[in-house]
Amino acid sequence: MGKVKIITDTACDLTIDFLKEKGIKIVPMTINFADRSYEDGFDLHRDEFYRLLAMSTKLPTTAQPTPGAFLKIMQEIMEQGDEALVITISTGMSGTYESAIMAQEQLKDKERVAVFDSRTASLGQGLLVLKAMEMAEAGLSKKEMIKELAQIRSRLFSVFTLDTLEYLQKGGRISKVQAIVGDVLNVKPILEVNREGQIVPREKVRGRRRALKRLLEIMAEEGRELYKQLITIGYSRCEEEANSFAEEVKKLYNVKKIRIGEISSTVGTHTGPGCLVVFFQGESSLGS
After folding, report:
1. 3-state class of 105 per DSSP?
2. What is the pLDDT of residues 114-151, one digit of tens each?
3. Terminal alpha carbon distance of the chain
4. What DSSP designation does 65 have?
């Protein structure tokens, strides 16, 4: 039997160049602006996306990859004698997992492909992709990889804050009045991903500085043995803050391994600029 090859979607927020370099196959999400549709990361890069987002009065929409896009890559991998493990954005945020399952169902040897719901997104999904890559390189089987990924997923916390409520309002998640009042009062939401892989509010604080401090406090409250982990941090148009936050994480919790990356179009559509998210492991909390 050949190797296990990893397939993921662009919501993982690992760069296209990195994924190509590591031999990880990538299926793009589609970003629909009023006058044009783009393939996230392929013909729409982060700088251009955030420029278009700032100019747009109507929030762009996102669309999951088609089953055909997954099927093509699955077949290419199988033709090489290898197996495939697909790691998707949460089913609580997108229909991407269902597209991958539909593609798998069209295969003759469907048992050679496994599809795994990350139940998160951005660099939380990216963290699982990185772990899968390590296990594939070590020669583990699909079954062994899925067992380990499920254990990590059950301990994974995805906690974030936003600088503005504007994009939650544009996306219909809160009312315009709530957004205006929140921004006037300098309210910064702290949100998290729950056990179903859905974004839910956790708490609210006043001020950006307090919000970032609160993320650090939540890591202390919920995290376990942070110093042993790879911590991932995602940001949108606030790189300096993300780097400072990472330095605080290192200083407070003696963390040695941190990966920082900018949030891409798929996730950035819903957060807007000024999002900072941290992914870390604690006690089992999100379900397996």
Report:
1. helix
2. 999 999 999 999 999 999 999 999 999 999 999 999 99
3. 28
4. P
d(Cα 247, Cα 154) in Å, to the nearest integer? 26
Q: How many structural domains are present in the chain? A: 2
Backbone φ and ψ for 55, nearest 5 degrees, come out as: -85, -15
Let me know: does 158 contact 120? Beta carbons within 8 Å: yes
**73: DSSP letter:** H
Instruction: Write out the two tokens for 130.
Output: 């990185």
| Bridging pattern class, strands 4-9 and 276-281 | unpaired
Residues 21 and 137 in one domain: yes
**The tokens of 191 are what?**
């949100």
Count helices and strands in the chain by DSSP H and E runs: 11, 13
What residue numbers bound the domain in which 249 lies? Answer: 155-281
Q: Compute the radius of gyration of the chain from its Cα atoms.
A: 19
212 and 75 share a domain?
Answer: no
Note the pTM of the prediction, 2 decimals: 0.94
Q: How far apart are CA 234 and CA 193, in angstroms?
A: 14
Describe the chain by its helix, strand, coil percentages, rounded to 5. 45, 25, 30
Helix or strand (DSSP H, E) at 5: strand 4-9
CA 184 to chain centre: 29
